[in-house]
Amino acid sequence: MTHRMRCDACGAVSPRSVDFGRAQDWQLRHAGRHPSHLTYTETLTRPWRARPQDNR
Ligand SMILES: [Zn+2]
Q1: C-alpha 50 to ligand 1 mean position (Å)
Q2: Ligand 1 centroid to 16 CA: how many Å?
């Protein structure tokens, strides 16, 4: 599962990372550079793999 943060003010996005701390570091640096950008959306991506042999 990977985490990504998106700034709601300007749409900038962090790199995807399996480590939430990396996404959070990006958010804190972004907020430091842009003090008016106060709200963020976190996106979680959970990969799924279909296994045809399990179809019943
Ligand atoms: Zn921003």
Answers
A1: 36
A2: 17
How many residues would you count in the chain?
56
**Tens of pLDDT, residues 1-33:** 999 999 999 999 999 999 999 999 999 999 999
Count of beta carbons in the 10 Å neighbourhood of residue 23: 24
Separation of CA 4 and ligand 1 centre (Å): 14
Q: What is the pTM of this model?
A: 0.79
Residue 55 lies in a domain: no
Domain extent at residue 39: 2-46
Domain count of the chain?
Answer: 1
